[in-house]
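Listing S7. Sequence submitted for prediction.
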Amino acid sequence: MGSFSALYSKENTIREKIKKSVDKTVSLYYYCDTVKNELFAELAVDFASPLPVYEQIKRSIKQAIARSIISESQALPSIRDLASFLKINPNTVARAYRELTQEKIVNGRAGVGFWVETTERMELDKSDLLREEFKKFMEKAIEMGFSQRQIRELIDRYFPEGGAR
């Protein structure tokens, strides 16, 4: 009888270890899936834009890094997953990843995966990204018929002198 209870106890211990392992795997999967979905939500491709699609992908990834949606050492979606999500050729995603690798923003290679290499360089690029976004805002406002004076008044309302928002 004693050996039966020892066997039963050992079996329960193994079950608990498996359960903990499965719980960790499910949690990690959920975390990775959540991060991937957040990144996918950030990635927008405008096929009518004069900017090439691979450049739009690069810009979106840089913005996601700058906004801390993806962080240092975090894995990026696979080339196939991203291409499938965006409904584009995988070579386009591969080119974006390759150029981000050359810029030392991401690291990795096809078949192994890609991840964010460093966010230090992105701190320097934040002002460039903001400048690009502001330029798009200005172009859109002018397209809508606003004068530079009207745009400045609008900005001044949001950022009154002496006050921080």
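Caption to Listing S7: primary sequence and predicted structure tokens for the chain studied. The chain has a mean pLDDT of 77. The chain has two domains: 2-118, 119-165.
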